[in-house]
Q: What sequence folds into this?
């Protein structure tokens, strides 16, 4: 049971962080100043990548908490696990909001508005990515465990 | 109950680099495979060209550096954990085999991507043969790294 929970938790983390890297590649390829992909073409890549992000986001939470309950060594209220949950929430909220900003940038008629929305999406994406990477750091170092 | 998560502190940094590199590598291979296989099915030549170029660049600028990070992290972690000893562990062997075969397939994909970027033209609907080969190679690499992740995580004996 432990092996299964750990494997699915780790695979979910790969899905979340891997798809986050993939989303950054798509964002860079659609920057308004020098787009390599049109909005319609980028949407073909964004849909499946977003699905992977959502699966990874939910999988890390569900199987991570399950592991913390299953293992005697850890408790869900341990400091590093609570910090991970808070960062996971920050990453999820800012990540979802960045997606909304990018969508708005893609449909904005005015190029200045599109660039402003795209930049706001980038700021939110950076926060989301830093939060997700910080969770990975906590998972490896397990401070206080 | 396994206590695999408890490890010496010296291993944490190299392990972090190894895992982070592996995660980015998987993400870049995923998006490269997606773009190149989507280009295969596109009837619009402009779309196919844009997706093909994006897929090739994802391999060159994304998968290559993340592979290097993953591999350096792996060697560093192994040297911290095992030192000069030669552990005969199945999960470690699976990791090395997938990394080495993966390096070969990635190298071939990189060469084909460079050639493909030079040859990419807007009059080739459905993408080029090179893009299809690199797309399939990226899928094979993803499958191999799935096996490696299973081995690294569950550590079968």
A:
């Amino acid at each position: 049971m432990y092996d299964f929970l750990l494997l699915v938790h780790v695979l979910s983390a790969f899905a979340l962080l891997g798809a986050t890297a993939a989303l950054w590649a798509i964002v860079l390829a659609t920057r308004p100043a020098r787009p390599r992909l049109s909005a319609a073409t980028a949407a073909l890549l964004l849909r499946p990548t977003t699905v992977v992000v959502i699966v990874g986001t939910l999988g890390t939470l569900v199987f991570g908490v399950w592991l913390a309950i299953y293992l005697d060594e850890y408790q869900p209220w341990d400091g590093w696990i609570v910090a991970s949950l808070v960062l996971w929430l920050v990453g999820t909220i800012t990540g979802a909001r960045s997606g909304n900003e990018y969508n708005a940038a893609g449909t904005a008629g005015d190029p200045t508005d599109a660039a402003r929305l795209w930049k706001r999406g980038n700021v939110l994406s950076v926060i989301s990515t830093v939060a997700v990477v910080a969770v990975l750091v906590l998972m490896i170092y397990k401070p206080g465990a | 109950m396994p206590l695999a998560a408890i490890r010496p502190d010296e291993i944490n940094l190299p392990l972090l680099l190894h895992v982070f590199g592996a995660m980015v590598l998987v993400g870049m291979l995923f998006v490269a495979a997606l773009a190149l296989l989507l280009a295969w099915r596109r009837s619009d030549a402009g779309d196919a060209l844009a997706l093909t170029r994006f897929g090739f660049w994802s391999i060159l600028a994304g998968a290559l550096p993340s592979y290097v990070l993953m591999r350096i992290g792996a060697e560093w972690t192994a040297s911290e954990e095992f030192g000069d000893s030669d552990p005969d562990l199945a999960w470690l062997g699976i990791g090395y085999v997938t990394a080495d075969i993966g390096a070969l397939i990635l190298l071939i994909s990189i060469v084909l991507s460079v050639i493909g970027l030079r040859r990419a033209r807007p009059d080739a609907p459905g993408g080029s043969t090179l893009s299809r080969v690199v797309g399939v190679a990226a899928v094979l690499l993803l499958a191999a790294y799935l096996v490696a992740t299973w081995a690294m995580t569950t550590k079968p004996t």
The CA atoms of residues 97 and 124 of chain A lie 7 Å apart. The radius of gyration of chain A is 17 Å. Chain A has four helices and no strands.
